[in-house]
Design brief:
- The chain has 338 residues and is of the alpha/beta class.
- It has 12 helices and 13 strands.
- Helix content is 38%, strand content 17%.
- The chain starts with a helix and ends in a 17-residue tail after the last strand.
- Helix 6 runs parallel beside helix 7 (161-172).
- The longest helix is centred in the first third of the chain and has 18 residues, at 90-107.
């Protein structure tokens, strides 16, 4: 017989949504717009009072956006927590950021102030080293260091991880840190081998060293090496992290800003805090996603590091400064997406 739990949860969610299902004042959601850009989608939400909020997520189809708009239109824009429960998938991330942007503008404070921050006044930043070989990666590192970066995520294969890290450390010198990125492509045996070979080189962590299809095998990687492991780029709900944390497989939580909302990541971070686990949001998006990540960083006590793609925020001495304006706190020009 099917469990009654999903039915009860849906009924409760419906009752929660009903509490804010209709609004007619200036803060009610009146309209929205969607831009599909090759690497991500951007949305704009508008209130009846003319206040705009912007959000970003992984690419979505127009039909997904239209369905979400039908659910949220007419609701209070400041009810971002209730509205979050109505949406699933990447669109939740974009809508949540846009509603927080609106709420911050209405309150005349940055988003992180709404969320109880700031816990810090700057966020440690990391960039990806692109290159087909190690000399190209070294050149990329030198270029990015002139832009203020001191931490780098390095895509490597299981055969050259240790050698690549040694050469980058020699070229980078003191004060430069590295994350080795397996992108979930290594087998658990390969992940164990890489972890053992690089643990004395002290990478910040190994990012997605293997698939989580076999959790016990991933746990074995963690048990056999002191090299920290980061997982979570494919998750879309805080609950997806619970088993990883319970089994102590994960040292660094890696929620994807294009898949999970600010509100959802903060919930995941609260769970991680109980396990003394750091949070380093994954970000491969544009300026809006990076700025959302900075507000998120300021609101989490266990924040560690943020992916900051070059050009999406100013970086100095390895850190990106927090925005100080209301809402997201950045100027947005829609003409850039036309």
């Amino acid at each position: 017989m099917p469990s009654a739990l999903p039915v009860r949860r849906l009924r409760l969610a419906g009752q929660m949504a009903a509490a804010s299902s209709s609004a007619s004042g200036p803060t009610a959601i009146s309209d929205a717009r969607h831009w599909r850009i090759p690497r991500f989608s951007i949305i704009r939400i508008e209130t009846r009072g003319g206040v705009f909020g912007y959000g970003e997520c992984a690419p979505i189809e127009q039909s997904v956006f239209d369905a979400a708009l039908a659910l949220i239109k007419g609701r209070e824009a400041t009810s971002f927590e209730v509205i979050r429960t109505l949406l699933t998938g990447p669109i939740e991330a974009a809508v949540n950021t846009a509603l927080l942007d609106i709420t911050g503008k209405l309150a005349k404070v940055p988003i992180y102030q709404l969320l109880g921050g700031p816990t810090r006044n700057k966020a440690r930043a990391m960039a990806v080293l692109d290159g087909d070989d190690q000399p190209a990666m070294i050149r990329a590192m030198e270029r990015l260091r002139t832009q203020g970066y001191l931490a780098f995520r390095v895509p490597v294969n299981a055969r050259n991880g240790a050698e690549c890290l040694k050469r980058l450390r020699a070229a980078g010198g003191d004060g430069v840190d590295f994350v080795l990125d397996g992108a979930g492509k290594w087998s658990p045996a390969e992940a164990s081998s890489v972890a053992a070979s690089v643990e004395r080189l002290h990478p910040l962590w190994l990012d997605e060293p293997c698939s989580l299809a076999n959790l016990r095998a991933a746990a074995k990687v963690s048990e056999e090496s002191v090299a920290p492991l980061g997982f979570g780029r494919g998750a879309e709900r805080p609950a997806h992290f619970q088993e990883l944390l319970r089994e102590q497989v994960i040292d660094v939580l890696r929620p994807d800003l294009s898949r999970m909302s600010i509100s959802s990541i903060r919930r995941a971070a609260a769970i991680a805090e109980a396990y003394y686990t750091a949070v380093a949001p994954y970000n491969a998006g544009g300026r809006i996603a990076t700025t959302a990540g900075l507000h998120l960083a300021a609101s989490m006590p266990n924040f560690y590091l943020l992916d900051v793609p070059p050009g999406t925020a100013a970086v100095k001495d390895g850190f990106a400064q927090l925005p100080t304006g209301p809402g997201l706190g950045i100027d947005i020009r829609e003409g850039e997406w036309a």
